[in-house]
Amino acid sequence: MIKRLFPQIIAITFSFLVLGLGTVLAQKTWTLEECILYALENNIQIKQSRLQTQTAEINLLQSKLDFAPSVNANASLGNNWGRNQGQSGLYIDRSTLSNSFGLNGSLELFGGMKKWNTLQKSELDLKASNYVSEEMENDISLGLTGAYLNIIYSHELLNVAEQQVEVTRQQIERTNNLVEAGTLPRGDLLEIQAQGAQEETNLITAQNNLSLAYLDLKQFLDLPSETDLEIDFPKIELSQELQIIPSDQIYANAVDIMPEIKGGEVNLQSAERSVKIAQGSLYPSLSLNGGISTNYYSSAQKLAYDDAGNPVLDSNLDPVWEDIPYSDQLDLNTGEYLTLNLNIPIFNGYAVKSNVKRAKVQTVDQSFRLQLRKNELRKNIEQKYHDAIAAYKTYNASKFSVESLSEAFNYTEEKFNVGMVNSVDYSLAKIKLTQAQSQYLQAKYDYIFKTKILDFYMGIPLTL
């Protein structure tokens, strides 16, 4: 009985394991580090940039192999027919089969150092390609960090909206009781109910913003919008004091490690190698060539000799000719050669000098591009530095404002409950508190994101 049910038991057990595994995956929470790692492994743009790196690796290998000699083999088979002059001197109709084989090689001994400079350029191009991939990875990591923090920010805004809605609901109940008791006019209840409706709308907006923030993160990860995605909400503690390294120190560090700068420097070096490659055509080139060849002709003949070594004659006392065997011809017709070729450029329509000038222009252009990138990096760091300081000041001011307005609202709410203030004053106090809470959260996460960017320029990994 057990043996008969064993396959079913195995199937049921396997189903439970699969369902359990699916539940675990569904319950997984993504940290910022896990999101970045997933994006770097699966982003299509990064994969495309890595394909460019593979192409650069192939080019580098080819540059190395260009130093090896070139060796080629050739063979031909042909057939000629028509009137041809025979051994007797008379023209006769005949068909001639020909066959030839050859093997030749060439080695450049000196070519103006073009191959050497091409090899150096290929190595630099490979480095530049790696820096392009690294720069793309950095851009995606920073963008993903912003999207991740936006979810946390939107989540806290949603909590504020939910709290405000709940407070207003409770206040509506208390106001309704006071109106029925005759303590407050009915207009106050209508005012509070209108505020409640507005806060319900704000709650829907906050929920939608949170959904859009999750959608933005999913798009960074190239995940379908219907994917269940839950992120980790770390507790982020902010220092009471401003702790930001001066922008000039950040720039001095970033200019040595940022891939866009390192790539620009390598591109400049590659352009300088291009100049040397173009200048190589101005110098003489020396090459060594050699080869071996042989051939066969079906019309090839030789005098016939008897065993005694005497020429064989026909009835007219004319010498008898016989065909030379195929293998004998391949052996007898073998030829070898070895040449040393020197090529001295004298005039080539000014083409070489034009190439040199174009290469020098590209070098100057690359130097400008590098300086522009450095300027852009410096401006970006200075902007983020001042934005971080402003966000920190706004954060502290907003924090104090929230604390003050919270106390003021609690005091106003107590007075409203006993009829000492009207609904308009109560609503204004509540709106001011909500606005201050929103500004506080915005400044908080703006400051966090700006400092994370500055830390990133210092070589500190992105983490919360």
Question: Could you please describe the fold and organization of this structure?
Answer:
With 464 residues, the chain is α+β, with helices and mostly antiparallel strands. It folds into two domains: 267 residues, Outer membrane efflux proteins (OEP), CATH 1.20.1600.10; 93 residues, no CATH class. Helices cover 65% and strands 15% of the residues. It contains ten helices and eight strands. A four-stranded antiparallel sheet has the order 2-3-5-8. A hairpin with a 5-residue loop joins strand 2 and strand 3. Helix 4 runs antiparallel to helix 10 and helix 7 runs antiparallel to helix 9. The longest helix is centred in the N-terminal third of the chain and has 67 residues. The N terminus is likely disordered.
Brief write-up:
Helices cover 65% and strands 15% of the residues. It has 464 residues and is α+β, with helices and mostly antiparallel strands.
